[in-house]
Every structure is written in C-alpha cells, then in structure tokens.
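Model: Ready when you are.
Researcher: Fold this.
Model:
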Amino acid sequence: MTDLHLLLTLGTIHLLALASPGPDFALILKIASREPRSTALAAAVGISLAILVHTVLSLTGVSLAIQSSHTLFVLVQLFGALYLGWMGMGAFGVQARLKRALAARPLAEAQTNELPTSRAAINDAQVMQSEELNNRVDNNLGNNASDNTMSAAAGLLLGLSTNLFNPKALVFFVTLFSTLITPEVSNQIKLLVAILLPLLSVIWFAMLAMLLSHERVQQRLLRFGRYIDYLCGAIFLAVSVAILLRLLTA
C-alpha cells in the first residue's frame, strides 16, 4: 500500500466513523441546538483534541498496551461506560427538572391568587396545566438560553471528555492502526496521520456545529428541545449499556 493510498484509506474510514451517530454527534447536536455558536465550535475542537490524543496514543503503542492489559482495559471500559451513562441520565434529567419547576410555578400562583378550597380544585388546575407543559418547556428553553448559556471553555472540556472517555474510540483507533499502520510505515507518514485525522474531525464537527447553530435552524430545533434531549440521552445510554453488557458477557 502506497503512502497516499494509506492516508486516503485512513481518512475515508475515519470520515465514515465520524458521520455515524454516536456520543460525539449527540453532544454537538445537543449543544448547537440551544447554546451559542462559539460553545458548539469549542465542543467540536474538544472532540478533535481527544481524537488527536487517541491517535498519538495508538501510534505510539500506549493504547495497545492498555488493551493488552485485561484489568486495565476493563477499568477503562467501566469508567467510560459509567461516564457516558451519567451523560445520558443528565440529558433526561434536564427535562425532568425543568418540567417539575414549570409545573410547580403556576400551581403555586393558583394557590396564592385563587386560594382553591379543595384537593379536587388543585387537581383540576394540574390537569389543565399539563396539556401546555411540554410546549412551555420548549419555549422556556429558548427564552432562557441567554441566561444559562454554557461557556466556550465548558463546551471544550465537554467535547474533550466525551470522546476521550469513550472506550469505543480507543478500540476503534487501536484496531484501525494495528491493521493499517505496519512497521514499514515511516515516522513522516505517522506524523501526517496524526495531523490528518484530527483535522478531518474538526472540519466535520465544526461544519455540523455551524449548521445546527444557525439562527433559523436553532429556532426550529428549540421547538423539539425535549426530543433532542431524549435522543441524545438515548444514544449515550445505548453506548453505555452496550459496553457494560460486553463486559458482563466477556
């Protein structure tokens, strides 16, 4: 395999992996749909920095050494699965906390202003409010976005940790490089690989962040804020459960 062919092959496989739905995609979707564009771009940079770390560790044999140690590899996978599971539960928790807060506010106002005299009256008020609660959740997310925005630094760290702590990323790069990076590959080509893969990553995720954080797109996505949270939470939890099941059945 020629050097150019090797770079093209690695780049193509990596792009296909980037385009497939996973924790990285879910994170960019979640952040770009409601946070400032700078935060979404910072998250894209964070993911790319993590991919740079994975690439360097794989090229230098560190990742292979981790995978070769059964105990260490199990601990890495367990930590990564728990982290992704925590991220998934957090995505569901945002909606749950917001719904509780929004449901309690009008009920408290009704009790203060109208002073209902029976439990039935309070229950009737709750029933009437529940039909509008989901819409108010989405609207509230949009109205309060400027008051509770995530900083670019937080987005960077979140992108970095999401990819870095994903055991599937470690396995992907070890498998990819152990197959294609033979001992005959020169250090110059390895350096190009270490530049190419993070570069493709930042281009892909930056484009995704730019598209999803466009004002018109973001306004439309805000209407489906709760579904985006549920989708992202489901992706994180699915990856987490898959890793845990593999550990249990290994």
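Researcher: Now this one.
Model:
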Amino acid sequence: MKIGVIDVGGGMRGVYAAGVFDYCLDHDIDFDCAIGVSAGGANVLSYTAKQKKRNYEFYCEYSFRKEYMGIENFLKNRNFVNLDYIYSTLSNSDGENPLDYKTLS
C-alpha cells in the first residue's frame, strides 16, 4: 500500500502543517507521494529536503520583517506578502535559509 500526503496551504495557517511535517521527520515517517499547494508546497519541499524547523522560521521569525510582508509591500508590489523575498532572497543557495536542493534531487 502506498501512502500520500496533501498540504493545501492557507497562508500563515501553514505553520500547523509545518509542525506536522517536523513531527514526521522526527519519527522517520515517509510518504510515497507528497503534494502541496501554495504555502503547502513550501512545507512539502522543506519536508522532502529533510530541513526540520525551516518553515517554522519562515512563519514565526521572518514574517516579522518588513521585507517579508506588510503594507509597504502591498503599496509597492500590490501584494501584502513579498514572495520574491521568501522564495528567492531567503531560499536561494546563497540566501539566509537556503533550500537543500541536493537532498531534493
């Protein structure tokens, strides 16, 4: 039997699923298939890369930075959350909290 998981995201509510994925990493729970939508995609990627607490930092630490989200972002980019900051500046190989692409491949 194969086991899969789907994380539907939901913006900042994704912190709950991030905790579930960290639990799975702690207890060596693996899935044959993992699908994520929006914030759920970020959660699934960090889980698949075996980077425990990575998403927790994005939700609970980085989210207080003005570069991450805020009215200034909305006025400048028409988006309250700066996805370029999250998925490029912080996550690139030279970023502050890079995604472990080597483990993903």
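Researcher: Key takeaway?
Model: The chain has a mean pLDDT of 94.
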